[in-house]
Amino acid sequence: MSLFRLPGWIHQHLYPGRTYENLSEQEILDLKQRLSGFGHNSPDVSVMIPAWNEQDNIFRALSSLASNQTKYKVEIVVINNNSTDATQELLDKLGVVSYFQPEQGITHARQMGLNKAKGKYHLCADSDTLYPPHWIDTMVAPLTRDNGVVGVYGRYGFIPSPGEGRFLFFFYEKLTGLLIRLRKKNQEFVNVLGFNMGFITANGRNGSGFAVVQARKFDNARGEDYVEESEDGRMAVSLMKQGQLKLVTDNKARVFTSSRRITSEGGLLKSFSAKAKLHMNRMSEYLRSRKS
What we know:
β1, α2 and β2 form a beta-alpha-beta unit. α6 packs parallel to α10. The protein has helices at residues 25-35, 58-66, 87-94, 106-116, 135-140, 167-183, 201-205, 231-240, 260-264, 268-281, 283-287; strands at residues 45-51, 74-80, 97-100, 121-124, 129-130, 149-154, 156-159, 197-200, 244-248, 255-258. It is built from eleven helices and ten strands. The model is unreliable at 220-227 (pLDDT under 50). The chain has one domain (8-287): Spore Coat Polysaccharide Biosynthesis Protein SpsA, Chain A (Alpha-Beta Complex). The protein starts with 24 loop residues before the first helix and ends in a 5-residue tail after the last helix. The chain is α/β, with parallel strands linked by helices.
């Protein structure tokens, strides 16, 4: 695989040019059939997806999850966070279990997912992210070894917009990877992102769960209404009080997410510059010796 190209497994889930409105009946039926194996009533693993007006994205994420090869019984559940588009209509056509959360904000959606999850292991996914074929098992594995690990998180890359290359994203991702390593010592909770994380459900329910003071918007792009505190970071802090977090470096757990947040922040170069400046200012926090 070229360093500057998307991995091969992604392409069948891209549905180029497709929106909910122009999905064919056969495409919907095929996806429904593949998803039918991920609706166990007594699952080992719960994959929980918050969604707000995602009719044109979520079928891609579901397609990638439905292609997972797993030894576990899995439930895939969507929390419809007050969508006003056809998200719910699509979920119903696909036969996906869903719950409606009228309180707006990804925090409330993830908390409902935590409350509704039936599995021993809880994986958090997103509507605009694609998951490799062994993601479920690779993420769950460290949680099953009884070695004090109560939470996991993985790496990620970006899916460029149509006609856009991956060259610059490669370097952006390298910077992110470096920051993950630097923060692991003192601020590992910052590394944990809701579209690629997991934990033992019982540990996730201890403490405050995903609760934060102010709920984030779904894109949470930097602007006047940007919210610094995140529900995924809050969960990570809670988990760290109960055990260890594990960074899963295997490419089988590396997901690829939409670049739309970068676009909303003014494009790749502007986002890269802002990210570099922010973390340079915080470098002393990342590198200082941890107090005993």
